[in-house]
Write a structure and sequence with these properties.
By secondary structure, this protein is mainly beta. The protein contains two helices and nine strands; from the N terminus they run H-E-E-E-E-H-E-E-E-E-E. Strands 1, 2, 3, 4, 5, 6, 7, 8 and 9 form a nine-stranded antiparallel beta sheet that branches. Pfam families: YceI.
Length: 197
């Protein structure tokens, strides 16, 4: 009889305890609006610089309440544009010397870790894949909730070392004797994602 009472008491205790455990909520997914979002690039050489845009193909952001919990985006590399409308530069950037867009039409980024920064700024770490080569990068991003219920995630400067992705054309690091024809290994991306439920 004591064993039965102990079993019943234990069962009641488990039921009562589980009633006070908060349910684990799954992060809410927001879809990136590629028409409202933007991505710009800047590349520098010894004698100047170039900049332009690239279109986003898709993306999503996951939120746990108001906190960024994960996400990803895909870049359509075939849409590389030069701000000065240089057809030759655009063709070269799409060629095998650089991004080889015929073989590698997309670049992807997948969030792996988020740490708190100051205010609405978070530090985002994730895997960036260019030309089927993946490296981890970290950058600060500003998260802002908009009046219409959408959310903005903005990273003003994401610095990427192109040589880590096999892009070595006129690299000073790879070819020290290149002289004034050198192109800096690092290029910068600036991205603004607008996402809605």
């Amino acid at each position: 009889m004591k064993i039965k009472l102990s079993s019943v008491a234990l069962l009641v205790l488990v039921i009562i305890s589980s009633a006070f455990i908060a349910p684990v909520l799954k992060p809410v997914t927001y879809k990136v609006d590629v028409e409202k979002s933007s991505l710009t690039w800047t590349g520098k050489k010894l004698t100047g610089s170039h900049n332009g845009t690239i279109d986003l193909l898709s993306g999503s952001l996951q939120f746990d309440g108001k906190k960024l919990a994960g996400g990803n985006f895909v870049i359509n590399m075939t849409t590389i544009k030069d701000a000065d409308k240089s057809a030759n530069l655009e063709k070269h950037l799409k060629a095998d010397d650089f991004f080889g867009v015929d073989k590698f039409p997309t670049t992807t980024f997948v969030i792996k870790k988020i740490t708190a920064g100051t205010g609405n700024i978070v530090n985002v770490t994730g895997d960036l894949t260019i030309k089927d080569v993946t490296n981890s990068i970290t950058f600060p991003a500003l998260i802002a909730w908009n009046a219409d219920g959408s959310v903005s995630a903005t990273a003003d400067k994401i610095t990427i070392d192109r040589t880590k992705y096999g892009i070595k054309f006129r690299s000073k690091g790879m070819f020290p004797d290149i002289g004034d024809k050198m192109i800096y290994d690092d290029f910068d991306l600036s991205i603004k994602l607008i996402a809605t439920k």
